[in-house]
Structures are given as structure tokens and as C-alpha cells.
What does this fold into?
Amino acid sequence: MKRGSLLRIYLAGSYLFPLVAGRILRKRLSKGKEHPTRWTEKQGRNLAPRPKGQLVWLHAVGLGETLSLRGLIARMAAKQPELSFLVTSTTRASAQVFAQNLPPRTIHQFLPIDAPLYRRRFLDHFEPDLCIWAEQDIWPGFVSDLAQRDIPQAIIAARLADKSFKAHQRAKSLYRDLYQAMKLVTAQDATTATHLGQFGVEAAITGSLKPAAPALSHSEAELSQLRAQIAGRFTWVVAPSHPRDEVIACKAHELLLRQLPDALLIIAPRDPKRPEEADPNIPRKSKSQHPKADDPVWLCDTYGDLGLIYRLTDAALIGGTFTDVEGHNPWEAAALNTAILHGPRYGNFTSDFAQLHASNAAISVKTPEDIANALLNADLADLAARASTVVEKASLSTDQLALDLLGLLRTPK
It folds into this structure.
């Protein structure tokens, strides 16, 4: 692997990271931003036992990216059942929800901070036979160390929007060194592939991993209980939601109630800890409260319950599509046969929604009136069925990627 001047400067500076890492981690711990018993994994300490045999390491930064890896893991495991998988991420929420959706023969760890000591502890312990970086989170120190150890690396479903590309351009030689250390690079879309070409990388366009991910898990007992409680009611959800999404959804629900007086709106916030200002009369899942027959709104303010909620609802208004968040993952709803509506702002999921619209599998809405009209008049069952078909086709396309990645595995010692 080539190590240009910018990469050498970064690697030298990374020796200083431990001087502040402990203080920063403890401060984050005091604010509830780190896992109370696992935060030391970010220093390469107290790691889980290494599984025997060949080990594939996959890394993704946050919740959505981490969950999207499950489909790829399933396809790789189907072709080589003896493989084990290590998934790393950085956020506490990703660890919590991924634990509820853990594939067989898979363990989760937090990615250590990119410092030489922490990297060495991690790599000496796990000795992966392949490293797969997902979407856009790659770390120069780890890439360099893996290359030195002759551990093959790949970047899959890379996503490099114009804004990120401009930032990468300011450190072009650094990213050129990192990308050219990869044995395989795939991109979500043509824009990303073009941007990666500026770093001397030829990337195949394979799309997003998210459509191929299995349906989210749920509690069957709780699902049965809730279905009995809301039986016969038209139920829809805004998820994962932000304040602006919720305002628009509530206005739409007021219109809907004029035609369907017993309709139920479920609000599932992206950050369950956020809505402290919510109406105290609204039942909250975090307080073990379920909706009564006369409750028009239910607040599902807990982590990891979208698998439950999407199984309950007739339609989902995808959150973040009315704010500068620019969208969230629509495929989790599609995988559970839920009709998809979305607002006008989805810049982070442009190709995903384009794929759905190409099959008439989603409805774009701009106003509360649009939402209420779609919920009342659209054939939601047909819309959901079309989205499910798109999911099935996307799942098949992941097979070739799995084969390509398995071809990179180190030969067993």
C-alpha cells in the first residue's frame, strides 16, 4: 500500500489519540452516549472471544448501515456455512438494535478509536481474514495496518454525495491511498462511481445493501397483544420521525379522523429520548402504555421496535423527508409489507426512492392534505405488494456481491 505524505502525517498524529481518548469517552459515558459496560471496546480492551475458523469483519458507522449488513451476511453464510462474522459500529443505538437482530455465527463489537495501540489490540485479537467497509466510514490507520498484515479489504455500497466528495478532494492523496488499498470497491449509484473514479478507483454500481436486509425482529407476544387491542382500526406510522415530520403527520391525522374516527397514528421518533415535550395524555411505550380504543395517537418512544410497528400498520410515512435530515431507510417498511409514503426531501436516499417509484411502489406527498388523501384513497395493499416485489429482486442481486467478497478471503492457515 502506498503511503503518501498526508497518510504518513495522519498515522504519526494518531499516536496522540490515546492522550485524549479516555477523557472523551468518559465524558460521553456520563451523558449516556456510550455503552455503560462496553465502552472500553473503543480502546481495544475487554473484547469478545474470537470465533474459531475463518472470520469476516464488516464495519458500518451507525444503526441503519449496520442493520443493512444482515442480508449480505446471510448470503455469504449460505455459501460458506462455516464462516463466522464480526460486525463493528460506533454508535450505542446501533449496538442495541443490532443485538436484537443478530444473524447466526455473528458477534458485535464497537470499533476502536483509530490509534496504533488500540488497533493493534483489536487486530491481534481477532485476526480477520477479510475486512469489509460499508458505505462511507473508513479509517486510515486501520486500512494501513490491515494492508501491512496482508488482510484483504473491500468497500461496498459506497456512498459519496457531492458535499462529501468536495471534502474528500481537499485530502485527495490521502483518499487515493486508502481507496487503492482495496481489492474490491462497489458503489450505490453512478454519482458515487464517478466521484470514486477521481481517486483512480473503478467501482461497480451494485446499489444499496438495505433492500436485501431481512425483516426486522419483533416480539410475537407483544404483536399479538397489540393486534388484539387495535383490531379493526386503520393504523399508520410516521417513522423514524423528527419534529417537523410529526407536526405534518399530526395535521394529516386530524384530517383523517374526519373520515375514519377510530384511526390510529403511531409516532416512532428517530431519537426516542427526544420527545419529552410530548402531550402527557398521549400513551407512551417507554412507560409500558398501549393505545386504548379512544387514543388517536400512540408514541412508540423505544429503540428497536420498528419491526413490531411496521407489522401493525397499513402505511408508513418515512421520517426525515420533511426536514434537512433528507430521509431515512424505506426498505425496513417495504420488507414488512407496509405501504410507503414520503415527503419531498430525501437527498440521502435518492436512488432508494427512485427504485421504489420505478415500480410504482411509493407515494410522494408534500402536505397534510396529500397524506390524508393518499391514506384514504390509494390502494395501500397493492402499493405494499409492489414494494415487497422490489425487495425480493434486490435480495437476489446481493448473491453476486457475496460471491465476489468470498473470493477475497485469505487462505486458511
About this structure: The radius of gyration is 22 Å. The longest strand covers residues 235-241. The chain has a mean pLDDT of 95.
